[in-house]
Design a protein that fits this description.
mainly beta
């Protein structure tokens, strides 16, 4: 109707690097045999999927992230492809990129789902190869969202880490499409 509003009117998406040891624990479960069965392929598939998590507080190793992008809710989910670069604020391990959103429900009414906000949405975790980041290093992360089966979103993510001296140390590529062909995922350590 003329003058009507869609609720939410706008959704702002954020992404930031962090270390989630519990998520690493779930992935590392598949590294060793269980009942004399090698489950390495299950780990490879698990590294190419996303995980719903609820982080009680902000644990990012970068400054608070700038918005990844804004979308206006539609059906089906709009496709997206954006890259964010984060400067590492404090040295430490990184094994995950967290994604979350803020939704403007009405003027002055903001629903926040980031770390430290208790909602049923929580955050979305994108596993990345575990590495030690140095203060001042640059972490580049690209997230693409395409429409998959039944118009559900399919996530593809890649990135790199460059140390403070400007030396590229890591490149990686993951995708939910690689869950069943994990050999197509890429991790490249550069010295």
């Amino acid at each position: 109707a003329p003058g009507g509003r869609v609720c939410p009117e706008r959704v702002t998406i954020y992404l930031g690097p962090t270390f989630l040891a519990p998520l690493s624990g779930e992935l590392s479960f598949w590294e060793r045999p269980h009942y004399d069965i090698d489950f390495q392929l299950a780990r490879d598939a698990a590294e190419n999927d996303t995980y719903s998590v609820k982080i009680p507080s902000m644990q990012l190793l970068s400054a608070p992230p700038a918005p990844y992008g804004e979308i206006r809710p539609t059906h089906p989910t709009p496709e997206a492809d954006h890259t964010v670069t984060s400067t590492v604020a404090s040295a430490g391990p990184i094994d995950t990129v967290l994604g979350w959103f803020d939704a403007e429900l009405a003027p002055g009414m903001l629903l926040q789902t980031g770390p430290g906000h208790n909602t049923h949405w929580g955050q979305l975790a994108f596993p990345v190869p575990l590495f030690m980041a140095e203060q001042g290093g640059q972490f580049r992360f690209r997230l693409s969202v395409t429409r998959g089966h039944m118009d559900l979103p399919t996530y593809h993510w890649s990135g790199s880490y460059t140390d403070p001296a400007g030396i590229l140390r890591l490149r990686f590529q993951r995708s939910q499409d690689h869950r069943f062909t994990p050999e197509d995922a890429v991790t490249e350590w550069l010295d």
